[in-house]
Write a structure and sequence with these properties.
InterPro entries: Amidase (IPR000120), Amidase_CS (IPR020556), Amidase_dom (IPR023631), AS_sf (IPR036928), GatA (IPR004412). It is an enzyme of class 6 (ligase). It contains twelve helices and eleven strands. By secondary structure, it is α/β, with parallel strands linked by helices. The chain binds glutamine (GLN). Glutamine binds near residues 81, 128, 129, 130 and 131. Glutamine binds near residues 82, 84, 129 and 272.
Length: about 425
């Protein structure tokens, strides 16, 4: 694996079932390092878990190996998924294979870079606020963020439970969809997964790979003005050309408005940090991972362990999240963010009364140069303006390459209604034709 790209934290193999047949038989898969792999260290890109070896594998890992895929290693990521560039990793940054002076996006940057560099056929990422779609867009590959509840989170080390899903990254829509076929489906170990037989309008026998047929005849594509405002002009024109191409292939486009999304990124960060502050309380030096050698009582040991084990971005978020949840501020920040979340959800529901998919740039910017955004967290957060509304509303979305500008890839995001994965796969496959 290419050392200059640094896509992998750990190279290790879990053999797939040799008797399996189907599209994933013999495929190589890279797994984000916050997804548990039995016997293989799972670091979350953090010093805290640098030596942590899980005793079991995530459901998604077992499903991929059962389908005949071989796991080839664990990929680099922003520490605990907190970032948009893969620069907050304790294992050094990953570089974008398209232009090694640039970031691959994040937080699943190692996964997208592994696919873009040809080091794995497929990769798994996790998407809490864009972390599958952003790196897919920046590296010129395909990434799917499934509907909340379609894919098991059992064995995913949590960042913000109410927002995140594991999703596949691959070179083509069909390959990503085939990986989704393998990992989707309810799991008794994750009570938030849904049995599709009980979901109105969903097809439990759906093959997402089969939906990659490029047929967009009669499909209605909503184009929300708000998700184009403020985006880099080169990104906008590349995405508009891809949408025009969908029109030429038989889709109808219509301008729509999602007024709530201007509050999405703020609401997302309040909710994500609040959940993270609670989730990361478990890293206390007793149960998992790093433990400080410092002498002292429990409070000293807890504080030292966390001082040594967590990086700056993670500490910032634990502090802000704790603040947002604390007595006196809870109503002011956390509850307001939940209200905004409900509004975003309603806006999308209303929009899907009239359209089949919603199209926008995945990221409003081109891939950052390495180091460019690390000292400016606010700028980094704002880059998630188009991806975070989708997580707030628990919807499915795909990022598909729309083309290039100045030699850099641009991603088109297609969002569907809940459990509308077949529709977004179908539309995305027309973009790539
Ligand atoms: N960039 C976003 C964040 O830092 C998204 C992260 C993610 O999806 N894991 O929270």
């Amino acid at each position: 694996m290419a050392a200059d790209i640094n896509a992998f934290v750990t190279e290790a193999t879990i053999e797939g079932d040799a008797d399996a047949d189907g599209p994933l038989a013999g495929a190589t898969v890279a797994v984000k390092d916050n997804i548990s792999t039995a016997g293989i260290r799972t670091t979350c890109g953090s010093e805290m878990l640098a030596d942590y070896v899980p005793p079991y594998s995530a459901t998604v890992v077992d499903r991929l190996t059962d389908a005949g895929a071989t796991i080839v290693g664990k990929t680099n990521m922003d520490e605990f998924g907190m970032g948009t560039t893969t620069e907050t990793s304790a294992f050094g940054p990953t570089r974008n294979p398209v232009d090694t002076d640039r970031v691959p996006g994040g937080s699943s940057g190692g996964s997208a870079a592994a696919v873009a560099a040809g080091e794995a056929d497929v990769a798994l990422g996790s998407d809490t606020g864009g972390s599958v779609r952003c790196p897919a867009a920046f590296c010129g590959v395909v990434g799917i963020k499934p509907t909340y509840g379609l894919v098991s989170r059992y064995g995913l080390i949590a960042y913000a439970n109410s927002l995140e899903q594991i999703g596949p990254i691959a070179g083509t829509v069909e390959e990503a969809a085939a990986a989704l076929d393998a990992i989707a489906g309810d799991d008794p170990n994750d009570g938030t997964t849904r049995d599709l037989a009980e979901v109105e309008g969903a097809d439990p026998d759906a093959s997402y790979a089969a939906a990659a047929d490029g047929d967009v005849d009669g499909l209605t594509v909503g184009v929300p003005t708000e998700l184009f405002e403020g985006a880099d002009e080169r990104v906008v024109s590349t995405v508009e050309a891809a949408i025009a191409d969908l029109e030429a292939k038989g889709a109808e486009t219509t301008e729509i408005s999602l007024p709530s999304v201007e509050h999405a990124v703020q609401a997302y960060y309040v909710i994500a940090m609040a959940e993270a502050s609670s989730n990361l309380a478990r890293f206390d030096g007793v149960r998992y991972g790093h433990r400080s050698d410092a002498d002292g009582n429990w409070n000293d040991s807890f504080a030292e362990t966390r001082e040594e084990g967590f990086g700056a971005e993670v500490k910032r978020r634990i502090l802000l999240g704790t603040y947002a949840l604390s007595a006196g501020y809870h109503d002011k920040y956390y509850e307001k963010a939940q209200d905004a979340r409900a509004w975003v959800r309603r806006d999308f529901e209303d929009a899907f009364d009239d359209v089949d998919v919603i199209a926008s740039p995945t990221m409003p910017v081109l891939p950052f140069e390495l180091g460019e955004s690390l000292d400016d967290p606010l700028r980094m957060y704002l880059a998630d303006a188009n991806t975070t509304p989708v997580n707030l509303a628990n919807l499915p979305a795909i990022s598909v390459p729309a083309g290039e500008t100045d030699g850099l890839p641009v991603g088109l995001q297609l969002v569907g209604p809940k459990f509308g994965e077949e529709t977004i796969v179908r539309a995305a496959s027309a973009v790539e034709d």
